[in-house]
Amino acid sequence: MARHRRVAHKPLSIDSSHWRSDGQAKVRYPTQRDAQLAASDRSVDIGYDLDVYQCAFCNGWHMARVSDRR
User: Fold this and answer.
1) Largest Cα–Cα distance in the chain?
2) Distance between CA 8 and CA 46 in Å, rounded?
3) Which residue has better confidence, 39 or 7?
4) Distance from CA of residue 11 to its chain's centroid?
5) Burial (0-12, 13-18, 19+ Cβ within 10 Å), 14
6) Rounded to the nearest 5 degrees, what angle is found at the Cα of 66, between the Cα atoms of 28 and 61?
């Protein structure tokens, strides 16, 4: 039986960038490219630009409104 290595995660705070404005956790993308493709598609649907960033909590990639990240 394979052993699973446990990865220590940083604790999340309510005001962290890991959460959406509705209180749900943001979608985690494994690579920057995956996040950029999703952000590009989503930007067309919602009508404003999205940026991607690497999350300090889960080390994955998330998207946010361009104005929220600058």
Assistant:
1) 49
2) 35
3) 39
4) 16
5) exposed
6) 15
